[in-house]
Amino acid sequence: MPAKSDDSGICVMPPYRIFTAAMTADATARQVRIISNLIEVSYRIFNGAMATAAGGEYAMRSIVLISALIAVGAAVASVLIAFSLMRLQGLPLGPNGLLMSVICPLVIAWPVSVFHLRQRRRYMAMHAQLARAHADLRQAHVRLAERASRDPMTGMLNRESILDAIAGEQALGVDGALLIVDADHFKTVNDTYGHQAGDVALVAIADAIRRTLPRGSIVGRIGGEEFAIFIPGCRGRAIAQVGEDIRRAVAATSFRPADRPVPLSVSIGGTHFSRNLTVSQALRSADRRLYIAKRSGRDCVVTQDDENRAAA
Predict the structure, then answer these.
(1) pLDDT, tens digit, 9 for 90 and up, residues 137-152
(2) Which member of 57, 225, 244, 307 is catalytic?
(3) pTM score
């Protein structure tokens, strides 16, 4: 298709002339293949430069070197494309065209790639910082949840947490022993030696309980000087045996407020927490046996098996 002239008399080539020139009689099939190969090679060089820059970003650690690779690749690709387009039109690539093909990519690609890489690294640094902040937040959440579930004095589960834990075991169909442990004469210790000494006694009792319990037991402080214990799979005579082990461990604990030895003791009520009981029902049953132990002189264990005997 011949070129058209505008009002000024200057010859103007339509844009689509570049892409349809290969289909005209002026271009042979061989020329088309050569030009297509040149264009393909130029794109491969450009893509190779981009891939090298992206792959070597961490290795080279230099924005300048990466930008230089991109700019050089863009310049080479620009020269090959300009040469191919001029060849399609049957025109030579003169010095001015060659110079423009080299300078334009260098001028444009260099600052653009520098800006892009700087922004990319900045975003990566921000992403890493955000990831660290999220990790710190998760750890803080775990610590806060752990602190909220624990009794600050003894380190055991608090009332709400242990009741939730026992309810969770019950929901899974796990049966076992439920014990309520209450410190004897605790008010006398507080009144005689002060609340600080009472706190020391409470911690000593809690430590004795922890040392005695079988693996997998759940223990918590449910209020004042009372502790609740759930022992999965414990039933029958084993309930009374565990209670007696706890009572002996507490009795053997050394407690010397004002440098004077003071005996410690606990009363324990226990029951078998079967699958057909609710947590409230099991707690009431264990608490009833604890009351029997208190009424029977304290420093003893009352379980479901010996309730009638203890009451008598």
Answers:
(1) 999 988 888 888 999 9
(2) 225
(3) 0.59
